[in-house]
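---------- Forwarded message ----------

FYI, see the NAD/NADP-dependent betaine aldehyde dehydrogenase record below. Original note from H. follows.
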Amino acid sequence: MTIAIEPVTDPHALAAALSGRMLIDGALVPAVSGRTYAVINPATGQTIATAPFGEAADVEAAVASAAAAQKAWAKLPARRRGALVAECGRLLAGRVEELGRLVALETGKALRTESRGEASVLADVFTFFGGLGSELKGETIPFDPAMLTVTLREPIGVIGAIIPWNAPMMLMAMKIAPALVAGNAVVVKAAEEAPLAVLRVAQVMNTVLPKGVFNLITGFGPECGAPLVAAPAVRKITFTGSVETGRAVYRAAADKLIPVTLELGGKSPMIVMADADLDRAVAGAVAGMRFTRQGQSCTASSRIFVHDSIHDAFVDRLAAAVDRMVMGDPLDERTDIGAIVSKSQHERVCGYIEAGRAAGAGVRACSALPDDPALAGGLFVRPHVFTGLGNDSRLAREEIFGPVCCVIRFRDYEEAIAAANDSDYGLAATLWTRDLKTALDAAHRLEAGFVQVNQNLVVQPSLSYGGIKQSGLGKEASLEAMLEHFTHKKTVILNMT
């Protein structure tokens, strides 16, 4: 099936055009079985498209296509591969509005505050990694003067990438851009809730890349994701998602003895010292909690430890700031906060809110539900700021993945560091202070893969990103990650005698 490649800014029309298709061997195709499932607009509850219900036969076709294309792709000079990936970035940069509107429609993320920005970062990731083709270097080793000893960086082969729904385009790009530049072919399994924008990205990129180098399949974990991990020709898995699913992926990969990269989630602490710039720290909490993404972020600063002397003022200012945010139609430029992605996730978040209330915690429910009748069936949740809960409460220990945070008092710096590290997770952490000595000490002692002081940026290309403990294995977003996770190192010895 052929779909116009010209930019389409009406997301409903584009969703309908992409309906029922995935991308295998350069073509938009239905599932072998013909089965589909509904793609729902979470802001209205209405079906906007269908997606193929991918199963083992579809996985087999996609992996075969990737395996057939990979060897020729790997033989291209690395800088040439990089130039093609960078050209994909250039094309995608011209489609920020199209892609931003489409991902807003299917995920419920507000266009102005989230989705347009994600589309911009998507393009930037391909441009960044496209420029790193010449960095796929080996080494010379002084082993023996009579022998020339070198190492080579070679691609792994076919990469299986399983991506989530909360930032599907950006997180896909972080996986496939370095994999492609390194000479691998990829098969992406899209999140079932958000298959449309990533499919459009795949379609656009396939106008540049050789057929079969980038395939995208849709479906559910047991029927589509599990066969992808198990496919004999898949030589590496990179996965972003829940800890539970990550463990299952890890076990399956272990049976094949193939490498994995796992980015699994977090319960990220934010420590606000007594000397912090209060206004700046509050703004950092609003950004860090990813309220504009409905809190649906693995790096969300959902445990906020605030010094006793400023705790009440901090909570008042945080609640007031979030209260000013507008919840509504994700495609409306006035909207700050959109909808929760799915009914099951909506029920999960609401369950945590009820648990917090039942525990007797103090709570501030912020912003206001939209009053537009067209959004009456939408999956909206007001942001909630809980106080009075300990670091041992469910809300402080379990990843909620919604607009819910706990503000916890502390009196002593050592107490705050210990509480911040008292978690199964270790993805991200932030500290807010004017004291350089405290900042440096905390940077060393906080148990997280990504530590920031007086700021709360999201993942960026060129900054190594990944967690420790149950937040996962491996790194993404950097040159080092490309070399470590998408190439093998081969040692070659030439005897000169």
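H. also flagged this: Residues 11-264+471-492 form a domain with the Aldehyde Dehydrogenase; Chain A, domain 1 fold (CATH 3.40.605.10).
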